[in-house]
């Protein structure tokens, strides 16, 4: 990874004061004090009604729907009912305890202020609604509307503050819509349910729970379908680009970029396993950091994600909420997708499942791509030397010939043969022969340009394609190679082994107009080099 390296804490700015957390602690403390105040007043507890309403509210708190980083709750309906029928103190205590119990069972909260926060927010909303309505309990339609407005207003204020403190990973416009929907349901259902409860408390309470849950279930299903549709669109966008991508790594990069549109992550990284280094390395990174993070950042992440076989949500001590998804085929993990949530935002289990579904399908395509490239490489490479084989060389030679003819360029073919190779095998054994072949292949790769194509043509014979290289330039190059080969000394089982090579050259278009004829002429030139005593370079025009 290029770029300057900064310490992890500086990169993510976790050393700065987190005003949102301070605000959460303040609200939690205020809600707790308010609840204790009403409990001490002693006028709250009517055990039968209270526990029935608490159970219903607790169930609805647990089944709250998370949309765009915020929650909408059916429990608000019953808080309004309680407020209208039982008064402010009863409603404050009920809403605080229901929120607290739901938070205690939540996987997302791990701190004391976090446990108290939802309940405190509920109780403060009820208090504001009561204050705006003149602190008078009653069933009046207008009072219920004011209660609801005050209650929803508290949620809206918290949403705005969350965005102001830079903690909101959702869409404020969408949140406002869903808060409005929640307020409408709370007001209409709350007023109607309050009237029904006055006539038959438990029957109306049970029926209200079922109807409220049914409504929110419809909203939840609708949201799930919208999420699935978004996931399918994401997969479609990724797959649509696959035909333009050259490697499986490009597929991973495309996936990382598309996921940014869904999960609004702060930083996304894809790690893949490097066999040469024996560890996972960052392959692609997409980040909001002003400068690319360095080794400290990646080491900190990898310490959390390595050796995981299943997707997981992690609370990192400095980075906060992290979603980790192993990239795997049906058995083996070949990499990890890691996304870091914006500061203060927590990823949910439902988001993790969506991330796992998308990345899992892409990972399988990527793994198949890797397998295809490996099989393709096996088909193109010589197993012993790692050089390209004869078939691949002929394919590339045809392409280069067409390109050179189209652009009026020249190129040269060099056939190389290791002298007395059979004698080396007979004297030292085939292991030594393999050593010589490998050494010569490495020598050619080191000595030639990246644009030159090197292949093992068969047995001890090699071939090199020199694009845009004329006869004179090719001859001088071949002579330099021949001289350097003579200087090489191999050690096999304590014995020094030396070898030489003979070469034949043919150049397009000077020597022939077709590449197959050029190969034939280069082979004849090589034969002449052998006949002249070996360790020679022969061109077509000096047969």
From TrEMBL:
Annotated GO biological process: cell adhesion involved in single-species biofilm formation; negative regulation of bacterial-type flagellum-dependent cell motility
SMART domains to which the protein is assigned, alphabetical: GGDEF
Transmembrane segments: 21-39, 51-69, 76-105, 141-164, 176-194, 200-219
A GO molecular function held by the record: diguanylate cyclase activity
Entry keyword annotation includes Iron: no
Record-linked SUPFAM superfamilies: GAF domain-like, Nucleotide cyclase
Entry keywords, A to Z: Membrane, Transmembrane, Transmembrane helix
Record carries keyword tRNA processing: no
A GO cellular component annotation in the UniProt record: plasma membrane
Gene3D superfamilies: 3.30.450.40, 3.30.70.270
Chain ranges of the GGDEF domain: 409-542
InterPro entries membership: Diguanylate_Cyclase (IPR050469), GAF (IPR003018), GAF-like_dom_sf (IPR029016), GGDEF_dom (IPR000160), Nucleotide_cyclase (IPR029787), Rev_trsase/Diguanyl_cyclase (IPR043128)
Domain of life assignment: Bacteria
Pfam families with a match to the protein in the record: GAF_2, GGDEF
PANTHER family linked: DIGUANYLATE CYCLASE DGCM-RELATED, REGULATORY COMPONENTS OF SENSORY TRANSDUCTION SYSTEM
Name under which the protein is recorded: GGDEF domain-containing protein
Species the sequence originates in: Carboxydothermus islandicus
